[in-house]
Amino acid sequence: MYDYTDFDEAFVRTRVAQFTDQVERRLDGSLTEDEFRPLRLMNGLYLQLHAYMLRVAIPYGTINPRQMRQLAYIADTWDKGYGHFTTRQNIQFNWPKLPDVPAILSALADVGMHAIQTSGNCVRNVTADHFAGAAADEIEDPRPYAELLRQWSTDHPEFQFLPRKFKIAITGSPNDRAVTAAHDIGLRMTRNAAQEAGFEVFVGGGLGRTPMIGHLVRQFLPIADLLPYVESVLSVYNTLGRRDNKYKARIKITVHETGRDEIARMIEDRFAEVRPLFGGADQALLADIRAAFAQPNLQSRSVADYDAAYQANPVFRAWADTNLSAHRQGDHAIVTISIKAHGQTPGDATSEQMRVIADLSETYGYSELRISHEQNVILPHVAKADLPAVHAALAKVGLATANVGLLSDMIACPGMDYCALATARSIPVAQEIALHFEALKLEHDIGALKIKISGCINACGHHHVGHIGILGLDRAGVENYQITLGGDATETAAIGEKTGPGFAYDEIVPAIERILRAYLGLRLHAEETFLDAYRRVGMDPFKRALYGDEGHQDAA
Amino acid sequence: MSRRYIPKVVTANRLREGDVVYLTADNHWTAHHHEAELIEDEAHAQLRLLHAAGQKLVVVGAYLADAKAGPNGPEPVHFREAFRTRGPSNYAHGKQVDLTNV
User: Fold this and answer.
1) Nearest-CB residue to B19 (from A51, A417, A428)
2) Mean pLDDT in chain A?
3) pLDDT of A550 strictly over 80
4) Most B-contacting residue of A48, A50, A95 (CB-CB within 10 A), to test interface
5) Residue A78 and residue A167 in one domain
6) How far apart are the C-alpha atoms of A320 and A392, rounded to whole Å?
7) Where residue A149 sits, what CATH number does that domain have?
8) Were A514 and a residue from A36, A231, A545, B66 both cysteine, which residue would form a disulfide, CB within 3.0 to 4.6 Å?
9) Residue A51 is nearest to which of B18, B80, B83, comparing CB atoms?
10) Does A427 touch chain B (CB under 8 A)?
11) A33 in B contact zone (CB under 8 Å)
12) pLDDT tens, A325-382?
């Protein structure tokens, strides 16, 4: 993976020194909170419900074992022994104290990490396919491009005060695991007629208050044009984006109000101006970055031990069936470590678990790790021969749950257990759904299912693109949960449709059960997934299951 | 007829630790909601909020939260404020354990 250059190192150290001084001045009263707030947010420090929260960037979800151990050290030293992996491929610490934050940032800098641009109206952490560099279906590893974008956008003077935050996602595979359609810019690698690699460019996607699927503005963007084109998109947005109303300030609203064709034309016009200014330095830099992402030298190994364990051990087999994905080299696999044990907080890993993951990465995984937007951790390259040992080691620390892609592999935002913006809780809803269906032993029968839960309209839990989405709201001082069905986060992205009136906190788990029992009753066969069945039959049978025949009419 | 004023407490987070605190009638910050001053007059509430906002080295983000009288002192009205008196529901972290260990 990419290691910091002297330039990166000096930049981060300078920022730590600067913020250390700012914290001191806040604590001695030289800075008011109004003055300090934007400074702390620029360094990822929020004030949440019960404490401060520090959001640390994990660029494009790539992290090495040394960094993972340092996160464990930070969790033990300055927090409560755990960290929360988020849908933005970041990690959040929920309990730092303000005077300790400079030391935490310094400890992060020691391993080439930081919290810069994890907040504020700037280009945020660029997210990527969590199987990047390993997936069998990949055209190219997207991470060199993500790193190029990271370097270009870091402290970019033109884009530090955008109308609103700006999120870029990139995938190197036609199977979109990075939810590119729901980002301000989504980049999907593709090939043109000459078989050259490039990007499809989507602009104006986003979830939140006004969910929208991104519009395709460029069918094929040559790799050499990536930075000037993205700069042109941002330039147009920076000019047109609405600063009068923060709810209308994201580029999705700009695209919606301006129209896809006009925005595409304006981007191309700007691109014609910007492109000649790029003299090739970016491509030289890209070549260096590519070298840093050279593939590990994968050893060829027999799969006999794996096959034997698969036949002999049903627990291992269940895990292998759900938590492994196809690697481009047949004798290897991609391991998704579920951070979703039934009843646990989705995305939370203890410091002990982080250390075990780091050890496994070094011993069996070529020292590579990824964090997924689905709040799991990935060992991207593991020889199948080593999988029984990896599984056994994971089981010892509660990380061998065989549920990836199933009901309990839910996304849940922190919700009102932590977040100051939340309107309802998310985490206990996720915990109860997982435990309820575990007790019913229905999870494997239900099969592939994405449930995504957000504790407010801002949709950090991606509820709009969940097959079943749950949105927690405050209805007259009571927690209320709205359900959407039919959302899709992949290359066939879709925004889910509301079922009707919401459900109280103690009604939401039974409501989800009614939906899923209806699905089990109407599916054509066990291979017809919930999403496929929904697309075939539509909303009506689920509305009836939720509200009854009478309520169904009221709801409609 | 004017609407009856919903009583308030002044609440904030401690600047250094981030802990949730409440303003008492004798100008201290307490971790216990029931020790807060229950303010039943709007003008007085604004004065108390101004007092809190002036304590820049002690607290951050002071605001008025709805409250009601209870047998042991003020109680939160909204569930958000009830959560703030305890801490998160997924772990025994925050005030729900910190206060019992005092």
Assistant:
1) A51
2) 96
3) no
4) A50
5) no
6) 12
7) 3.30.413.10
8) A545
9) B18
10) yes
11) yes
12) 999 999 999 999 999 999 999 999 999 999 999 999 999 999 999 999 999 999 999 9
Residues A308 and A288 grouped into a single domain: no
For residues B4 and B37, the model is more confident at B37
Number of domains in chain A: 4
pLDDT at A556 over 50: no
Run of H or E residues at A45: strand A45-47
A151 and A284 inside one domain: yes
Q: Which two tokens stand for residue A92?
A: 């959040």
Q: Average pLDDT, stretch B69-76?
A: 97
Burial class (CB in 10 A: 0-12, 13-18, 19+), A451: buried
Q: Considering the domain boundaries, does residue A122 fall inside one?
A: no
Return the H-helix or E-strand segment holding A21.
helix A6-27
- Pair (A314, A417) in one structural domain: no
Instruction: Looking at the complex, report in whole angstroms how far the Cα of residue A379 sits from the nearest Cα belonging to chain B.
Output: 27
Dist CA A403 CA A392 (whole Å):
16
Residue B1 has a pLDDT of 53
Could you tell me if residue B13 is inside a domain? yes
* Best to test chain A binding among B55, B80, B84 (most A CBs inside 10 Å): B80
Tell if the CB–CB gap between B61 and A47 is shorter than 8 Å. yes
Q: Is residue B1 part of a domain?
A: no
Q: Which residue of B has its CA nearest to A49?
A: B84
Residue A360, pLDDT score: 98
Residue A163: inside a domain:
yes
For residue B74, name the pLDDT band (cuts at 50, 70, 90): very high
Report whether pLDDT(B2) > 70: no
Residue A116 included in any domain: no
CB contact under 8 A, A50 and B77: no
> What's the Cα-to-Cα distance from A207 to each of A3, A181, A464, rounded to whole Å?
32, 10, 7
Rounded CA-CA distance A436/A431 in Å is 9
Contact residues on chain A for B89, CB-CB shorter than 8 A: 417, 425, 427-428
pLDDT over 90 (residue A496): yes
Residue at B89 is within a domain:
yes
Q: How many CB atoms lie within 10 A of CB A442?
A: 15
Q: Is residue B18 part of a domain?
A: yes
Q: Write out pLDDT tens, residues A375-413.
A: 999 999 999 999 999 999 999 999 999 999 999 999 999
What is the mean predicted confidence (pLDDT) over A237-259? 96
In A164-197, which positions are buried (b, 16+ CB within 10 angstroms) versus exposed (e)? bbbbbbbbbbeebbbbbbbbbbbbbbbeeeeeee
A504 membership: H or E segment, kind and range: strand A503-504
pTM higher than 0.90 for the full model? Answer: yes
Q: Which residues of B touch A425 (CB under 8 A)?
A: 83, 89
Residue-wise pLDDT for A179-238, tens only, equals 999 999 999 999 999 999 999 999 999 999 999 999 999 999 999 999 999 999 999 999
Integer Cα distance of A358 and A347 in angstroms: 16
Residue A21 forms part of a structural domain: yes
DSSP per-residue string spanning A205-253: -B-TTS-BPPEEEEEEEEGGGHHHHHHHHHHHHHHHS-SS-GGG-SHHH
Q: Is any Cβ of chain A less than 8 angstroms from the Cβ of B38?
A: no
Q: Measured between CB atoms, which of B61, B79, B90 is closest to A427?
A: B90
Residues near A404 by Cβ (< 8 Å), separated by ≥ 6? A322, A323, A336, A338, A376
* Residue A549 pLDDT class (50, 70, 90 cuts): confident
Query: Which of A372, A396, A420 corresponds to the end of one domain?
Result: A396
